[in-house]
Amino acid sequence: MRIATWNVNSARTRADRMADFLRRHEVDVLAVQETKCSDEKFPYARFEEMGYQVAHVGYHQWNGVALLSRVGLKDVRTHFAHQPGFAKDPAAEQAREARAVGATCGGVRVWSLYVPNGREIADRHYDYKLRWLWTLRDQVTEHLAADPGARLLLMGDFNIAPRDEDVWDVGFFEGRTHVTEPERAAFQALEEAGLREVTRQFTEQTRYTYWDYTAGRFGKNEGMRIDFQLASGALADCAASGFVDVEERSGKGASDHAPVVVDYRLGPDFDSVR
């Protein structure tokens, strides 16, 4: 099964690019982040006519996540249990944002996640980011404790560079989010809960997944590795190959993120549903 994750930075703007990507790489499941639209405005028909089932969570023009699957889409969840909410005003209702959607696709429990950015270290959004990640860790722990052999896959834009080499210049990020120890500890906690980051082993030569639009970052390859696929042990053992589609990032009108693709050898059980 070929599974990809991609922060598209507006699904309506890049629907054609998404369709071309799915067709070009024969993707079975695509996790999408930052769709930037409400449910009623997502371009479902564009992908359904290609044979994909679609689950989307979007409340307005910010955030938004989706799953596109041609191998089934069962037991859809529009958030994970106890998913924290956020409002800038601490006295206001802390409303849940459109940052997680899960479903079972071809026997794999898949989540598309758009982890909060954090903004600045002193911002309430940074604390929200950490709460969000640790709550997610708790859910992973509970899931794998109940079913140690589960094929579970968390993927998306994690807005964390777990290692110094995952940014073009770690000195540039001093005093900024994405590289702080609390963020990295939260990412590591997901791995300690039983997940393995499966993309790095295939993408050391093309390690970055995001390049800011400003300052000519892409042309200078001043990027960050912040998009990942985290798989449970039973699924991580099936990871056979993968790549970052840097060429997709280089095109006119591209998202500032590149798709991250992994192939999983799942055997005859998967062949029967494909």
TrEMBL record:
The keyword Lipid biosynthesis does not apply. The keyword Hydrolase applies. Residues 4-257 form the Endonuclease/exonuclease/phosphatase domain. Keywords: Hydrolase, Magnesium, Metal-binding. Its cofactor is Mg(2+); Mn(2+). Gene3D superfamilies: Endonuclease/exonuclease/phosphatase. InterPro entries: AP_endonuc_1, AP_endonuclease_F1_CS, Endo/exonu/phosph_ase_sf, Endo/exonuclease/phosphatase, ExoIII-like. NCBIfam families: exoDNase_III, xth. Belongs to the DNA repair enzymes AP/ExoA family. PANTHER family: EXODEOXYRIBONUCLEASE III (PTHR43250). This is Exodeoxyribonuclease III. It comes from Corynebacterium mastitidis. The lineage of its organism: Bacteria, Bacillati, Actinomycetota, Actinomycetes, Mycobacteriales.
